[in-house]
Amino acid sequence: MTGHRDIEYRELYPDLPEPIYEPLAFDRYSDAEMRSRARGWYEELDRRRTVREYSREPVPRDVIEHAIATAGTAPSGAHRQPWTYVAIDDPDLKAKIRDAAEEEEWQTYTKRMSDEWRRALAPLGTDWVKTHITDAPWVVVLFKRSYDVTPSDTKIKNYYVSESVGISAGLFISAIHHMGLATLPHTPNPARFLAKLLDRPANETAVLLFPVGFPAEGARVPRLRRKQLSEYVQWNLEPPTERSAITDTADAASNYR
Asked: Distance between CA atoms of 52 and 44, rounded to whole angstroms?
């Protein structure tokens, strides 16, 4: 850096509070252990499927708590953690959510969707009927907070909200799969009814609805092809080259799911 960029950031803004640091707790593994963990984690998540048919078998509350706590470890813009998770196992409340969701989905599938959109969804076999909301023992709704409010009613802006909430949702889905359960990232749109039914404040907007539970006996999922690794990765500025054994393995495993 040259010229004016040589000046220290905090010289320009001396009134900023000083950060407080602490030692990093970090476990370092051997190359062999890293490779083993990397492959094992990939292979576990490659078995993950989005499930729409659920058993009504109960799921303990503490495992849902752990999944949400895992989601809460996500990095976030300015460490604002702009998410709220609402977990519901009350059958009456789930029924109200389903009724409202199906009304919106009916409007979407029959009036709002373009033909292109309908064709894109056709391989998934979805429609406006959302049995997963009442069949799954738990429904977890993720809200994003565009701003926070202090006890004195002062608004505090949050940053990179969509990115932060998206990362948190990914960790939640991974945690649910890791513990041996299934879920579905349902995106009712518009989703204003969720804030009303769940009594959420004006600064929160529903983003995703996750049914959580065991797959129903005999549950089926669409036969879908995942992209091969070579279709969504680039190494520096290099043109495509011969694939490594790792890439070949990943490609072979991801053909159809």
From this structure: 20
- Helix, strand, coil proportions of the chain in percent (round to 5)? 45, 15, 45
Give me 245's structure tokens: 């054994």
Report yes or no: 140 and 212 within 8 Å, Cβ to Cβ: yes
pLDDT of residue 239: 75
Per-residue pLDDT at 256: 57
Region 225-244: mean pLDDT is 80
Q: What three-state secondary structure class fits 218?
A: coil
Q: Which two tokens stand for residue 204?
A: 């929160």
Question: How many Cβ atoms sit within 10 Å of the Cβ of residue 161?
Answer: 20
Q: Which of 195, 176, 163, 174 is nearest to 65 (CA)?
A: 176
What is the average pLDDT score of the chain? 92
Six token digits for residue 15: 């009134």
State whether residue 182 is helix, strand or coil.
strand
Tokens (6 digits) for 181: 């359960």
Measured CA to CA, the distance from residue 221 to residue 184 in angstroms comes to: 12
Under DSSP, is residue 122 helix (H, G, I), strand (E, B) or coil? helix
Treating both helix axes as pointing N-terminal to C-terminal, what angle do 161-178 and 31-46 enclose, rounded to 10 degrees? 90
pLDDT by residue (tens digit) across 150-200? 999 999 999 999 999 999 999 999 999 999 999 999 998 899 999 999 999
Angle at 139 between CA 163 and CA 158, to 5 degrees: 25
Burial per residue of 6-26, b for 16 or more beta-carbon CB atoms within 10 angstroms, e otherwise: eeeeeeeeeeeeeeeeeeeee
Question: Residue 115: which residues within 8 A CB-CB, separation 6 or more?
Answer: none
Q: Is residue 47 predicted with pLDDT exceeding 80?
A: yes
Instruction: Tell me the per-residue pLDDT of 2-19, one tens digit each, with 9 for 90 and over.
Output: 556 667 888 899 999 999
